[in-house]
């Protein structure tokens, strides 16, 4: 990927919360429009039943001097204009693209269904991780807890050991160790198995013969030096898998998930969290 297409659509979407009702109508038109039209202010104002001044205010809210500058940039979408980017930017973007492609290749749809089935069967889920994996564990907790699931991230080495006493056959323990080098997490997974908990390892490396006892091993994409956050965060492949599990769980529990999520969202909005 040597060049990237330029588009103002992401800029419009990023400002959506700041739009008035009229501006939202204008934004919706430019986001969804698939035709190359006469984009003059006079023609668009007649088409959308808004004033030319409203088009100007909309453009300025996006950071442009006025409608003329906005539409100049918008038309580049039709010309498929590309821009050359600095090498370090290109390297980061290419890494994301590579990891997305690798993630697509690694996804096992049947495994995802099995894990979601386990989520529905078990009462509690603990997510173990340290460092960047700990941050990914916290994200997993936040995502699923909003669906009413009993999920807890544990990211401290002492708590990983202490949590042993809380485990039983009604628990799932998800251990995140992209490099398979986090000894505290792997040791805690061993203890979880001893207590009868279901164990799911999220990693980029298949365990050796001595560590094949996990109920599921979820492989995530990796790139050289990713463990050290050399270019992008090592959390990224784990977050992709979290999103896939999240989407699959919602699909399998659609009505219940939507109702719980909506009620949680209302509480958050009411509390201004």
Q: Could you give the topology of this structure?
A:
Blueprint: E1 3-5, H1 9-14, H2 21-32, H3 41-48, H4 52-61, H5 67-79, E2 82-84, H6 87-106, H7 109-121, E3 124-128, H8 132-145, E4 151-154, H9 157-162, E5 171-176, H10 183-194, E6 198-203, E7 216-219, H11 235-252, H12 254-271
Parallel strand pairs: 3-4, 3-5, 5-6, 6-7
Antiparallel strand pairs: 1-2
Helix pairs in contact: 2-4, 4-5, 6-11, 7-11, 8-11, 11-12
Biggest sheet, in brief?
5 strands, parallel
Strand content: 5-15%
Reported CATH architecture of the largest domain: 3-Layer(aba) Sandwich
The CATH class assignment of the largest domain is Alpha Beta
Number of helices: 12
Fraction of helical residues: 40-55%
Shape: elongated
Based on secondary structure, the structural category is alpha/beta
* Beginning-to-end CA distance, first to last residue: 40 Å
Short description:
The model has no long low-confidence stretch (mean pLDDT 85).
Task: Give your account of this protein's structure.
With 273 residues, the protein is an alpha/beta fold. The chain has two domains: 81 residues, Winged helix-like DNA-binding domain superfamily/Winged helix DNA-binding domain (Arc Repressor Mutant, subunit A); 164 residues, Glucose-6-phosphate isomerase like protein, domain 1 (Rossmann fold). 55% of the residues lie in helices and 11% in strands. It has twelve helices and seven strands. Strand 3, helix 8 and strand 4 form a beta-alpha-beta unit.
